[in-house]
Amino acid sequence: MNRRGRRPACRIRVALLALAATLLAAVAHAAAIDAAASQVGFHLVTRWGQSLDGRFNTIRGAVDDMGGDLRRVRLILSTSDVEIVGHPGYTRFARGSGFFDAERWPLVEFISDPYPPELLQTGGALGGTLRMRGVQRREVFVLQPAGCARPGIDCDVVASGRVRRGDYGMRRWRVALGDDVRFSLRMRLRAEPGQ
To answer: How does the average pLDDT of the chain come out, rounded?
Structure first.
C-alpha cells in the first residue's frame, strides 16, 4: 500500500482518539450529586392557612463541567415516592393525577443554564429549564452565598424557587390549595478522591 493510502487511515485514527479523549474528559468532569446528603423539598399552603411540607425521597443528578470555566446542574427527582411529611392522605394526593401524577409522569427534571463557579460563592439567580408533568418551562432559582471555600463539598449549596402549579397542569384542588409551590434545595456533591 502506498503512503497516500495510509495517511487517511492514520488521520481517522488520530481523530477517533481525540474524540474519545474529549468524551472521557467530559465524563471525568461531571461531579455526581450525593443523594444521601442532599435534600429537595417543597412547601404548599392550603386556602385556610395550613402549611404542608413535602420532600422528594429519590434524587439523582450531576454538575457538569461545560468548559470555558462554566458549569451546569442536572437534577432528576422521582415523583413515585414523593411525600407530604406527616400526612399520608396528602401524600396520596401529591402522587396522584391531580398533582405530580407519578404514574404518568414519574420524574421532575431541572437543567440549569451554564453558570460560572463564582455564582456559588456570591449567590444569585440561576435560570434553567424545569420539566414537570410533561410541561417544560423556564424557571429561576436563587442561590444563597456559600459559607465555605468548596461549595457542595464542604458545605451545602442552598437554593430556593417558586413555581405556579397551574403552569404545569396541576389545576385540581384549587379551592383547597394555593397556586404557589415553593421549592427548597440543599445539595451536596460526592467528593472525588483527593478533594
So the answer is: 86
Q: Is residue 192 part of a domain?
A: no
193's grid cell: 478522591
For residue 122, count other CB atoms closer than 10 A to its CB: 10
Q: Which amino acid is at 90?
A: Y
Contacts of 156 (CB under 8 A, 6+ apart): 38, 186, 187, 188
166 lies in which domain range? Answer: 33-187
Interval 3-37: pLDDT, tens? 555 555 555 544 444 444 433 333 345 799 999 99
Residue 115 lies in a domain: yes
Say yes or no: 98 and 173 in one domain. Answer: yes
Specify whether the CB–CB gap between 75 and 61 falls below 8 A.
Answer: yes
Is 40 found in the same domain as 5?
no
Q: Is 68 exposed, middle or buried (0-12, 13-18, 19+ CB in 10 A)?
A: exposed
